[in-house]
Design goal:
By secondary structure, the protein is α+β, with helices and mostly antiparallel strands. The protein folds into 3 domains: 176 residues, Beta-Lactamase (2-Layer Sandwich), CATH 3.30.450; 59 residues, no CATH class; 176 residues, Alpha-Beta Plaits. 50% of the residues lie in helices and 18% in strands. The protein has 11 helices and 13 strands. Strands 8-9-7-10-11-13-12 form a 7-stranded mixed beta sheet. The longest helix has 51 residues.
């Protein structure tokens, strides 16, 4: 499957899963919220209605023969007024009634506000409870924490005590809301969320297709370019359209193509004299000869004090500043004929005299160090960051013969030069310098820069280091 289709599918799936998760979370939260609203409403109805019921009259309704008696009807009409007042809206009260316990533990209906029909319970009819937990308390108001079921359906009920003139509880006022009202509300919410989800998926599909094309287009161009190079079209070049990783990769591939084109041109010039196989051999021999007795100069630079910015600015801001810092330092190194060996954390290692023999490599390295210090000063002014400790570059430089081919930079001789430069940097940091060079480098400078001998360190033998004055630096 092409990468573009994979990316498109992945983005659509990501949006779909995100929408589904949000839908599930919203429905779950809406269900809890709706249940809480129903509890609040039905409880408020019974709590506000119970004190308005005449408990003395309710206490007089003791026999089933009093069903539909004038006294019964008087109490029932009060309940109907409350039921009808709360019977409209999204959460209507379905049943409102009075019940009381019997001596045997059962409960009976006293007054039911329902009209005639199978939903009406007469005076003396037993109340259906699935468990003892569903029975209401006599002296306190309560709302059910879960739905209750009986022969009439599934309900959420609330209860409040009804007292007589002496304060004695003579009955319990109950009110019911049908559970299907919540289901209707949730279905309406679900339909709306599903419609919104479908619209989001459609939009996400279109955006994902555009984004996948935008992201993979540079890859497609790089693939086609590499294929042209493979077919021998070395004069082809990529158009650098961005400054991101794709842009950097395009620049690197262009440089590779330029190198290949130069090598092929050189081979073509030699074809007139020898066979192509002999030309390849001569080229290889020439490259090896260039590695003999070559010197290199290594610059090691540490950005001191930068780590304190993490707690001040946050990791994202610090990462952006580091990117700007490295980009600036790399540009300075390349402009001064240096090669970037590696960079990690806040350290930079550069090599001079690597790609071609350079008799002034030591001077170029020192000039690079001075330019790096000034570039850092400029960055700090642009960043406008107040810190408790100063931020500066500590740089060490060392020169030594290169005893291995340039394509094997992990050999011992290169590591030795890097260690010497790191030692110079460490000595300089201890003595408050900003730029310290080894004696081998100082000899190559030929008084081009003001040098001052640094006191010898115990454990470093007879090795001598020199401090390079940098009067042009304002914060050095």
């Amino acid at each position: 499957m092409p990468f573009r289709r994979k990316l498109h599918t992945l983005l659509v799936l990501l949006v779909g899963v995100s929408c589904g998760l949000l839908l599930w979370m919203s429905l779950r939260k809406a269900s809890r919220l709706a249940f809480g609203l129903i509890q609040e409403k039905v409880l408020s109805v019974v709590v506000s209605t119970a004190p308005r019921v005449d408990g003395d009259k309710v206490a007089q309704l003791t026999s089933p023969d009093q069903d539909l008696s004038p006294l019964y009807i008087e109490v029932r009409d009060k309940l109907r007024e409350v039921r009808d007042a709360n019977g409209e809206g999204a959460l209507p009260i379905r049943f409102i009634y009075l019940i009381r316990p019997l001596e045997n533990g059962d409960w009976e209906y006293v007054v039911d506000a329902e009209e005639k029909g199978e939903d009406r319970s007469s005076l003396g009819d037993l109340v259906e409870f699935e468990s003892e937990l569903e029975k209401p308390p006599l002296n306190t108001a309560r709302v059910d924490e879960a739905y209750a079921r009986d022969s009439f359906g599934t309900w959420l009920s609330a209860f409040a005590p009804v007292t007589d003139s002496t304060g004695k509880t003579v009955a319990v006022l109950g009110a019911d809301i049908e559970s299907h009202r919540i289901e209707v509300l949730l279905k309406q919410l679900l339909v709306g969320d599903l419609i919104a989800m479908l619209i989001s998926l459609c939009m996400a599909t279109a955006v994902a297709a555009w984004l996948a094309r935008k992201v993979t287009l540079p890859l497609t161009e790089l693939r086609d370019f590499v294929r042209r190079i493979e077919r021998g079209n070395l004069s082809s070049r990529l158009e650098v359209k961005s400054n991101d990783e794709f842009g950097e990769l395009a620049k690197a591939i262009n440089q590779m193509a330029e190198g290949l084109e130069e090598r092929e041109s050189l081979k073509g010039a030699l074809v007139d004299y020898v066979r192509s196989q002999a030309a390849d051999t001569k080229l290889k021999r020439t490259d090896d000869e260039q590695n003999v007795n070559r010197e290199i100069t290594v610059l090691v630079a540490d950005l001191v004090g930068f780590s304190q910015l993490t707690s001040l600015l946050g990791s994202e801001r610090v990462f952006a500043l580091l990117n700007e810092y490295f980009s600036t330092m790399i540009d300075v190194i390349l402009r001064h004929r240096g090669s970037l060996e590696k960079s990690s954390d806040e350290s930079v290692i550069a090599v001079f005299g690597l790609n071609s023999e350079d008799s002034h490599q030591a001077r170029h390295a020192v000039e690079t160090a001075l330019a790096m210090q000034q570039a850092l000063n400029k960055l700090l002014k642009e960043w406008k960051i107040k810190t408790n400790k100063p931020i500066f570059l500590e740089i060490g430089i060392s020169t030594s013969p290169l005893l291995c081919p340039v394509d094997q930079l992990d050999c011992d001789s290169v590591r030795l030069v890097i260690d010497q430069a790191s030692t110079a940097k460490t000595v300089g940091l201890k003595h408050g310098n900003r730029l310290t060079v080894a004696e081998t480098t100082a000899k190559k400078l030929q008084r081009a820069f003001p040098l001052e001998v640094v006191e010898k360190e115990p454990g470093l033998g007879d090795e001598t280091f020199f401090r390079v004055d940098m009067p042009m630096l304002t914060n050095a």
